[in-house]
# Entry
Amino acid sequence: MEIKCPICGTKIELEDKLCVGCGSNLNDIHQALLRKKKASKSEEYNGYTIEELDSMFEFEPYSKGYALREYLGLDSVVFVPSRYNGKSVVAISPNCFEGSDISEIYLPKSIKEIGNYAFSGCFGLNKVVLTDQIKKIGDSAFADCISLEKINFYDSLLQLGEKAFSGCVRLSKIKLSNKIEVLGEYCFDSCSSLEEIVLPENLKRINAYAFLDCVKLKKVKFNQELSSIGDYAFSGCTSLKSVLLSENIVSLGEAVFYNSTSLKSVYIGEKLNSLDGNVFYGCDSLETFRINENNKRLTTNGNSIIDKTTKALLAGCKTTRIDNNIKIIKKNSFCGYSTIDKIFIPDCVISIDNEAFFNNSNLLICTSHKQKPKGWNQNWVVGDSKVIWDCNKL
# Structure
């Protein structure tokens, strides 16, 4: 009679003394068969006996139940029990599986919380089965799980901590909970296989560096409730080509799209009323700005972002032509562009801030001013740009 070894799956003959696949003897195979049969009858312990629970897991009291504190077993596929000592297992403690050799983890519905660093550095972890009861995933909970390719969150999830999936370089598919209101700092940074993200409908804030260096990220669908994006949130997203910001965004942090070198077009909604030019630092492909016509403060003219009230140019791009109504060029308006080869500044510009033209390689600046006006900062241009005075056109 031929059967499969319940431990490794290799076909074996009963007259054999050992499994050729894993080396298990007949007694080991027999015990594994009994445990597999028992598992179907003992759902709350996932087939483990109390003795086995004590030898494979350590628990600690937590919130009227227990938290799994440490995994002591050798199996790479782990089924977390839902009960211990007559009470529910409600959480995975911080650092519980950190750096372990597990490949798959199955969580019961009793789990409500995953602690900080719970699975951090589990390099072989490629499958995570969550449930519709989990409300919180802590800081760095799955950081550097370099074999993890996808993760689905149920709408029970309310909190996603800082660096929760930082460095998950193979993670290409994410379905976020619609009840999440804040994405923590560095939440998905360096997820270099992630290609698309649909932001949750109730998300209100993306914290700093959330999608830093997601180099394959091509598409972001911004939700309408989003109001704030933190510093460098999409910095280094070198495959991102267009951005359609939601109407309710009122705040963009520093260098949000820093060095997103493929970004070509940006749409800004009606509620954003200010921004620093370094939001688009190094976006060499940027050529088009569009702004909602109902925006009371910002407009676009000559492919630049203009403050209607002060007549100040806030941000330019490689196709910008400075309009004759512009009075001020703000700090960082033109920074880090290597694709702007020349630009003309008309004599209507009476003020230029510090580092307005910053680190633009090989830029030729022509102006109709005969010399630097008093209103131009001493360091209005920084880098190797060349300036030609008393020039009426390019």
In short: The mean pLDDT is 88. The radius of gyration is 29 Å.
